[in-house]
Design a protein that fits this description.
- With 358 residues, this protein is of the alpha+beta class.
- Helices cover 69% and strands 9% of the residues.
- It is built from six helices and five strands; from the N terminus they run H-H-H-H-H-H-E-E-E-E-E.
- The chain has helices spanning 2-25, 38-95, 99-137, 140-174, 180-260, 273-281; strands spanning 294-299, 318-324, 329-334, 337-342, 346-352.
- A five-stranded antiparallel beta sheet has the order 4-3-2-1-5, with no helix packed on it.
- The longest helix has 81 residues, at 180-260.
- The termini are far apart.
């Protein structure tokens, strides 16, 4: 009989414990019966939601910090490469001459400006995005709020254990196995349970308030940092676009003289020397030199004469052109020397009547 009685008592204790655990576990709604009221259920669910929300936001902030740091590392390498390209272009432009040298210097200057803008952007990402988010991830408010929530969970588990004890003592009293000592112990256990419940609710409210404040700050801070990152990157691209537009204008201005000049046609051989000599010796037409029209031309391409009757020209020289033939050759005088040269190598700058040129 004693064995049967012990088994019955053990069974009642297991049933009572399962009932209390079910109450604290909450089932689908997390409801509590004897130990906690509906407010505690709502508080417990709120803390669970806040704990998950702050944990996910913290992980997102870490992902942003890692992404920004990776962007800074790779971007710094690109800035280094761009600065090296700028230095090489500047070196070529200084040591060389001609149209390409000017373009190289302009490209070097623009490249340096763009790399400076990129460096400023990376610095902004580090100081205004990564560092604030990293500080929040490791900051005390989140740690303190989590400690409060964890303390609430421990107190709740303690209340569950006390509820099991109260349920056991209540079962003994109902079964008529209790005496005055059992009643006193039951009252003491119920008093401790109520005290634990009160402390649990107070701590739970503090934890919920702290967690809610952390959640709001996480949302606000992360959104602000993302917006500032987008705005700074947009401004960076706008400034780089301005630099590129200016550089393009400079490059096109260097290329325009080439495009404005008609395609160079390989000229035929210059007139025979005797004819040229006769023309040089007798510039007067129709018995007067007042009817001879000359015009001034600027040399756009260098030309090196290959014979005694050809005139060597350099870019930027001015030639007094006296005759242009249909075969692509022109005759004129430059720097006191007369001769023939390709007509396509010059561009008219102004027309003058030069009857007294010589």
């Amino acid at each position: 009989m004693e064995t049967i009685r012990k088994q019955a008592v053990k069974l009642r204790e297991q049933v009572a414990k399962q009932h209390v655990v079910k109450q604290f576990g909450g089932g689908a709604d997390g409801g509590l019966d004897d130990v906690a009221d509906e407010a505690e259920v709502v508080l417990h669910q709120k803390l669970e939601r806040l704990y998950i929300s702050t944990r996910v936001a913290k992980q997102f902030q870490r992902d942003i910090v890692r992404g920004v740091e990776g962007y800074i590392v790779s971007g710094s390498k690109l800035v280094e490469i761009g600065n090296k390209l700028s230095e090489d272009s500047k070196k070529y432009g200084i040591e060389s001459g001609g149209m390409l040298s000017r373009a190289a210097v302009n490209f070097s200057r623009a490249r340096a400006q763009m790399e400076k803008e990129q460096g400023n952007l990376l610095k902004f990402f580090g100081t205004q995005v990564a560092e604030p988010l990293r500080a929040m991830v490791m900051g005390a408010p989140l740690v303190d709020a989590r400690h409060l929530a964890q303390g609430y969970d421990r107190m709740r588990q303690e209340a569950e254990s006390q509820a099991v004890e109260v349920s056991k003592r209540q079962a003994r009293v109902r079964d008529g196995m209790g005496n005055s000592d059992h009643f006193m112990k039951l009252e003491a256990a119920e008093s401790r349970l109520q005290h634990s419940k009160s402390n649990m609710l107070t701590l739970g409210k503090q934890a919920a308030s702290a967690m809610a404040a952390v959640e709001a700050e996480q949302q606000k801070m992360t959104l602000q940092r993302l917006i500032s990152m987008i705005e700074s990157e947009r401004d960076y691209h706008q400034r780089v676009l301005q630099i590129l537009d200016h550089l393009e204008g400079e490059m096109v201005s260097e290329r325009q003289p080439i495009e404005a000049t008609p395609p160079v046609v390989e000229p035929s051989a210059p007139p025979p020397y005797k004819e040229v000599k006769r023309m040089f010796a007798s510039p007067v037409q129709n018995g007067s030199d007042d009817d001879v029209n000359y015009f001034l031309g600027e040399v756009m391409f260098s030309y090196y004469g290959e014979s005694a009757v050809e005139l060597s020209l350099s870019v930027g020289d001015f030639v007094v052109v006296r005759k242009v033939c249909s075969d692509g050759w022109a005759e004129g005088e430059c720097k006191g020397k007369a001769g023939w040269f390709p007509a396509a190598y010059i561009q008219t700058r102004q027309h003058v009547l030069a009857t007294k040129i010589f």
